[in-house]
């Protein structure tokens, strides 16, 4: 699953933002939202498939945290796109300054 597609949903974005502050149990995550625990579970499953979060067991609890490998992959891709556009925007700036100087 594509990480950007997973983040298209606002609830999943909020879950990722919440986990950026630290690991939480699935119950703690569910309590922060006004939707059902099974719905949160499905969102967490989607985020796991997208490699944006990972889960570990602590006794009966499931603890979720960001999967930094997946987040880093997405960040690297965004950086590539940013570099491409940065080069284009720098060239545009040079062109605009040249036109202003005339």
How would you characterize the overall build of this protein?
This protein is α+β, with helices and mostly antiparallel strands and 102 residues long. It has a single domain, classed as Orthogonal Bundle (Arc Repressor Mutant, subunit A). Helix content is 66%, strand content 14%. The protein has five helices and three strands; from the N terminus they run ααβααββα. It has a three-stranded antiparallel beta sheet with strand order 1-3-2. Helix 2 crosses helix 4. It is elongated, with a radius of gyration of 20 Å. The model has no long low-confidence stretch (mean pLDDT 92).
Radius of gyration: 20 Å
Q: Categorize the overall geometry.
A: elongated
Order of helices and strands: HHEHHEEH
Number of domains: 1
Topology, number of strands? 3
The assembly state of the depicted protein chains is single chain
The CATH architecture term is Orthogonal Bundle
Brief overview, please?
Helices cover 66% and strands 14% of the residues. Helix 2 crosses helix 4. Strands 1-3-2 form a three-stranded antiparallel sheet.
Could you list some keywords that capture this structure?
about 100 residues, single chain, about 65% helix, three-stranded antiparallel sheet, alpha+beta, Arc Repressor Mutant, subunit A, elongated
Topology:
Elements (H helix, E strand, L loop, with lengths): L2 H4 L3 H10 L4 E2 H6 L5 H13 L3 E6 L2 E6 L1 H34 L1
């Amino acid at each position: 699953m594509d990480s950007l597609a997973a983040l298209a949903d606002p609830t999943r974005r909020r879950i990722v933002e919440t986990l950026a502050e630290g690991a939480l149990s699935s119950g703690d995550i569910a309590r922060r939202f006004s939707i059902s625990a099974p719905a949160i579970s499905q969102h967490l499953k989607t985020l796991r498939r997208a490699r944006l979060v990972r889960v570990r067991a602590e006794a009966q609890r499931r603890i979720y945290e960001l999967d930094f490998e997946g987040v880093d992959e997405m960040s690297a891709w965004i950086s590539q796109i940013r570099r491409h556009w940065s080069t284009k925007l720098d060239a545009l700036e040079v062109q605009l300054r040249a036109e202003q100087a005339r």
